[in-house]
Amino acid sequence: MLLQTIILTVVFATAYAAASNSTSSTMLETIVTTVASIIGAAVVVGLINQQQSISDSSSSSSRQRKSKRDDSSSSDTDISVEGSVMVTLPAWALASWEDYFTRKYTTDEEMMSLAIHLSDRNITEGTGGPFGAAIFERHADNHATLVSIGMNRVVPLGNSTLHGETVAIQLAQRRLGSFTLMLDENKEDGLFYDESHDDDEKESSTPRKRQFELFTSCEPCAMCLGATLWSGVSRIVCAATKDDAQSIGFDEGPVFEQSYEHLEKAGIQVTRNILREDAAKVLQRYGTSGRIYNRG
Ligand SMILES: [Zn+2]
């Protein structure tokens, strides 16, 4: 504010000097000089105010970010408190991105190995709970490619909904730009519809549903069963069991055999106990020292 006052004082002094200057200045020249000086000052003051506003806002945001960081024991916490939530993968996962995404996967065991690896590394790195997940797309010749990965991020990001499965589902949908993975590769809008009641649509194109499969290192909790149902995946494959998770103290919520039957009725194929022992070992390792955030 002091700077603006100084600028305005200088401008008015210049204008006054111009107005009372030599006899050669005409009245018109004096008016033009004065008006031009005032406009120039207004532009300069406006720029300064704008700059201060940007600077205030950015220092306020950085204060909030700093305060958040100070409150957290994790180094990779990244939560916006300004009306949005950030879901982030830990740095080690991003660094391994190319290794994960450039391969062609063929067997269930190979794909499950990645989900279990994510759960194991998540413990080692201290970036969340002992659960990993990955979503693959199955192609016509039966090989699969990786679409997204996820791991438990509940404690580091302060968000009870960030289980391995939900993180993988969110990132897959973000990548594909769709609220569902029920997609049709022959449709302009990409969405797959049940066209059995729509003869006109049926004749217009042949539906070809893309196949997305969710691999999870442990059978889903009640929340993730629901998320799986709404996600649009066509298959869920699980390693460790609900009992394995509960044996180290986790509460899995209301999950019943009928829950899986419901998924199958909805057209989602269920495969369980793929590499169960490997995944259970990761849970047991976490159970000896890790934080059980929703104890049963
Ligand atoms: Zn869950």
From TrEMBL:
InterPro entries xref list: CMP_dCMP_dom, Cytidine_deaminase-like
Positions of the CMP/dCMP-type deaminase domain: 106-263
EC main group: hydrolase
Region (Disordered): 55-79
E.C. code: 3.5.4.-
GO molecular function: guanosine deaminase activity
Keyword Ion transport: no
Biological process per Gene Ontology, one example term: purine nucleoside catabolic process
Domain of life: Eukaryota
Keywords from the named record: Hydrolase, Signal
CDD domains named among the record's database cross-references: nucleoside_deaminase (cd01285)
Pfam families: dCMP_cyt_deam_1
Keyword Cell membrane found: no
Annotated signal sequence range: 1-17
Name of the protein described by the UniProt record: Nucleoside deaminase
Organism: Skeletonema marinoi
